[in-house]
Structures are given as C-alpha cells and as structure tokens.
Write a structure and sequence with these properties.
347 residues; alpha/beta; TIM Barrel; two-stranded antiparallel sheet; 13 helices; 13 strands; 47% helix; globular
Length: 347
C-alpha cells in the first residue's frame, strides 16, 4: 500500500510547500484537490519542486472541461515531472457543473466514461501519428493538425484515476480507468458491499482483473496524540462529513447504514445556509463509521483492519512537528501490506 498526502489548499504556493513537505516526510504520492486553486497548476509547481514524489490531481473536475484541454495539460505535466503525474478526474455534481461552471450535464457516468476514452484516443494520435477519429455521443475529436500535435510523450501516458461514489460511476472507472479514487464520503461497509462489486463488473466488461488496478482509499483519518489535537481535527472532519452528507448524490452511502433521514436534515440545513450548525448533527456513531480517529498507532492499525485488503494507496497526514523515525515505521507497516490477492476476480 502506498502512503499519500494532499488536501485542500488556498493558494498555489501553499500547495507547493505542502508537496515539498510530503516528499520530505516520506510520502509516496501527493494530490491537489480542485477547490480554491487550479489543481493542474498546483501539480506543475509540485513537479518542479519535488524529485521522486508521485503527483496528481485529486480530483480535477472533468465535466467543467473538455477532453482535449485535459489531455494536453496532463501530457505536459507528465513530461514536466519525468513521468510522475497521475490524472485524477471526477464529475462533480449537477448544481456545480450547471450553475458554477455553466457547463452541460447529462448521464454523468456515461459522459465520464466517454471523456476518458476521448483522452486516450487523443494521446494515441500523438503517440502514433495516426489520424484522430474519435466520435462519441458527447464528445467528437476529429482534427489534429501537425502544428498542434506535441508528439509522443517520452514517459508514456499518465495513469487515469476516476473518483466515484455511485455504482454506475464506479463501473465506468473499472472499465476505462487505471484506478479508482474512493470518495472521502465512503465507509468500509459501502466499499465492500457496493463499490467493490461495481468495480469488478466494470473490470469484467473491460476483460481485465484488479491486478495492477489502483484503488485509493477514503481519507477521513485523524492520527494525533493529544486530546486537543484530536478534537480540533475531528471537528474539521465532522464539518466535511456534514457537507458531503447534505449532497443528494451521496445519499446512498447514508441509506446503506439506515441514515437516509440524516441526508434530508443536512440538505435542509444547507438550503437555509446553516453551514456552521451542520456538524452538530454528526454524532459519534456517524463520525466513527466514516472516519478513523485515534493516536497514530491506533489509526494505522485501523487502516489496516478496514482497508488492508481493499486499497492500494491511502492518504495519511502526520502533524507538522511529527517524529520522523516514528512515522517512518508507521508508513513502513502500511507499505508492507501485500497486493489485493484476497479479492475476488471478475467472472
């Protein structure tokens, strides 16, 4: 299992500083999330400032863009980072795509599937010199003059990771992507009962298995020593759980646990703008189901118990003043987890 870092950054420079810190702390990968910054620009800075760290967009909002612009940006970042870039894509939800980005919305899983296939067709045209002839239901790319063709990437193509919550998007990830980024708003039960079966269906459709397929695990992890540090970090996690829980698209996760009414309550509070009060309705049972909370040793042990046979990479952030030797040993215990040999295979 690889150990990653990442998060929500308020500036590109902050993201760059965090990437350098992640490399120094011994992380394997680092992700830039599209919230207040452009994750592609953040990855460019991270690629320049680091030497060995895998860097990725985790996630970039695909449906706010088009396959050609994403293909070009990802190609550049893969070359800039000497082959260390991972293209993490997500669909976002309808209100953001239509009202924040003013872009079309329909059948998100089918659209994301085609988005990835279009990117691969564009990369193939650049790599081989073959004519670009992609015609889909949502995207059409049939023009690639030599003036706009960057040619083959010396490091090949980046891995494409799709973020998913619902079964249809998860199936699409299994079919066309190189990996799945589990949404933070996931639980162990949801991953085992909903996500994994859908992923296996997608892999079967592509004629593949989970061998070599990456799965990034949920990232609500609080690993701190003092009660004050745990309380502060837990408050932030409650806020995130409440925010995601208010989104109708993620209702299925709550319903699996019998908490469907919680989604109604959170959504109504969000509609009234009661963002600061929403964490108050996330009780300890909900918190502990979605998040891992404890000392570093307790948190690492719980990651192993919940996800050791499910994921190939996990995001864990030590405190700024962490004991390097202690955390090196903790990271090593996660990396010692073997591949997903115990998981069922398609078919």
């Amino acid at each position: 299992m690889k150990v990653d870092a990442g998060g929500y950054f308020s500036s590109i420079d902050e993201a760059g500083v965090a990437a350098v810190a992640a490399e120094r702390a011994g992380h394997d990968g680092w992700w830039a999330t599209e919230t207040q910054i452009d994750p592609f620009l953040a990855c460019a800075i991270a690629g320049e400032r680091t030497e060995r760290l895998e860097i990725g967009t985790g996630i970039a909002v695909a449906l706010a863009r088009n396959p050609m612009t994403v293909a070009l940006g990802a190609n550049d970042l893969h070359a800039l980072s000497s082959g260390r870039f991972m293209l993490g894509l997500g669909s976002q939800v309808k209100p953001h795509i239509t009202h924040r980005y003013s872009m079309p919305w329909s059948r998100p899983a089918a659209r994301m599937r085609e988005f990835v296939l279009a990117i691969r067709a564009i990369w193939n045209a650049w790599a081989t010199g073959a004519p670009l002839r992609f015609r889909g239901e949502f995207y059409t790319h049939t023009l690639m003059a030599p003036f706009f063709d960057p040619g083959p990437n010396p490091y090949g193509n980046p891995r494409i990771m799709l973020a998913a919550v619902g079964p249809l998007m998860t199936e699409a990830a299994g079919e066309v992507a190189d990996g799945l980024l589990c949404h933070p708003f996931s639980t162990e039960r949801y991953l085992r009962e909903v996500t994994l079966p859908a992923l296996l269906r997608g892999r079967a459709r592509a004629g593949g298995t989970l061998d070599g397929f990456e799965i990034g695990g949920p990232s609500f992890i609080v690993a701190r020593d003092s009660g004050a540090e745990i309380a502060e970090a837990t408050d932030a996690v409650r806020q995130q759980i409440a925010f995601y829980g208010s989104t109708p698209a993620y209702r299925g996760v709550l319903e699996l646990h019998g908490w469907g009414e919680l989604q109604d309550e959170l959504n109504e509070m969000a509609q009234r703008g009661e963002w600061q009060r929403m964490p108050e309705v996330i009780d300890d049972d909900v918190l502990r189901t979605f998040a891992i909370v404890g000392t570093p040793e307790e948190a690492i042990a719980e990651i192993q118990r919940r996800y050791g046979d499910l994921v190939t990479r996990i995001t864990v952030a030590p405190p700024e003043d962490h004991d390097a030797e202690r955390w090196e040993a903790l990271f090593a215990s996660l990396r010692a987890l073997g591949p997903q040999t115990s998981l069922p295979r398609p078919g």
